[in-house]
Amino acid sequence: MLLKIKNSISEIGRICDSVKRFCFKNDISTKKCHDITLILDEIVTNIIKYAYTDKKEHQITLSIQKKKECVSIKLTDDGIHFDPLSQITPDVTSSIEKRQIGGLGIFIAKQLSDAIAYSRINEKNQLQIIVSINKEKDHGD
Question: What is the DSSP letter of 56?
């Protein structure tokens, strides 16, 4: 599946609908579909909110492929250089009042995926995410 979206929060619903259709067509469990949708919601929201310094329309490309035992996701944007993997892991053990703001979306994406890799190629951020869809690893489904 290839989806080109605008840098607008209103596009999140379209992403979620497209991912649900993709999962249904590819016989991916409801739990894994939810995980993939949550990962993309968190990451794409961050891109839309923070990647652009101007008010112009930009394009974000989302590619999703089912491979043998996993789903491979690739996000590409032309926003400012940002490596989400270089961010400090938030302290999720401290009280809400003492926690630093930010970083939870990336933390959630890391927790729900099996691998995430970042690269900057031709002035574009590229994030590759792998999510296992092996039934044996699908806890709670």
Answer: S
**Where do the structural domains in the chain lie, given as residue ranges?**
2-137
**Pick from 91, 5, 85: which is nearest to 45 by CA?**
5
Q: Using CA atoms, how far apart are residues 32 and 43, in angstroms rounded to an integer? A: 17
Rounded to whole angstroms, how far apart are CA atoms 74 and 110?
14
Q: How confident is the model at residue 141 (pLDDT cuts 50, 70, 90)?
A: very low
pLDDT band with cut points at 50, 70 and 90 for residue 57: very high
**CATH number for the domain running over 2-137:** 3.30.565.10
pTM: 0.85
Residues β-bridged to residue 71: 66, 131
In the chain the beta strands, taken as DSSP E runs, fall at: 2-6, 59-66, 70-77, 115-121, 124-132
* pLDDT of amino acid 95: 56
